[in-house]
């Protein structure tokens, strides 16, 4: 299967073509989620589940137009929290992801109608550090790999991504 990238070619008569790529997996994301860790083995290793709903967007711009890819990632995952040192814990997470409302729009010379893409069910893996900040506040910093694909009219697009995820958790 071949990966396809979305491309913007805003060149027109009398203007040199400038080709830019809009990788479907890139972008800035903001999400709200919850996790629950009900199982503790020996009061040291915590196992639980969680989920999140977010918004992710990326765009490319030229002097005469732009193209924006936006979507709403929905994640469900299992996690393990393992102590490393006093106050620092290792966070491992694995789960599934599907993006809803995946759309591409392009005002300006591109002037394209909004196009809706379909998200397939994908998988994610995450590993990093988790640390308590106060009695009711904790943070984590982890690397995440997501394996995800979008489809449109029989064409499959890679939406795979690797990124840094920072969270701030309210601990109840």
Written description of the protein model:
By secondary structure, the chain is mainly β. The protein has a domain at 31-56 and 74-98 and 120-170. The protein is built from no helices and 13 strands. Strands 3, 4, 5, 6, 7, 9, 10 and 13 form an 8-stranded antiparallel beta sheet that branches. It has a 3-stranded antiparallel beta sheet with strand order 8-11-12, with no helix packed on it. A hairpin with a 2-residue loop joins β5 and β6 (88-106).
Helix percent reads: under 10%
Which structural class fits the helix and strand makeup?
Answer: mainly beta
Described by strand count, sense and barrel closure, the largest sheet is:
8 strands, antiparallel
Give start-end ranges of low-pLDDT stretches.
1-18
Percentage beta strand: over 45%
Average pLDDT number: 83
Report the C-alpha radius of gyration, rounded.
20 Å
According to DSSP, the number of beta strands is: 13
The number of distinct helices, counting runs of at least 4 residues, comes to 0
End-to-end Cα distance: 45 Å
The dominant shape is elongated
The helix/strand series, from N terminus to C terminus, equals: EEEEEEEEEEEEE
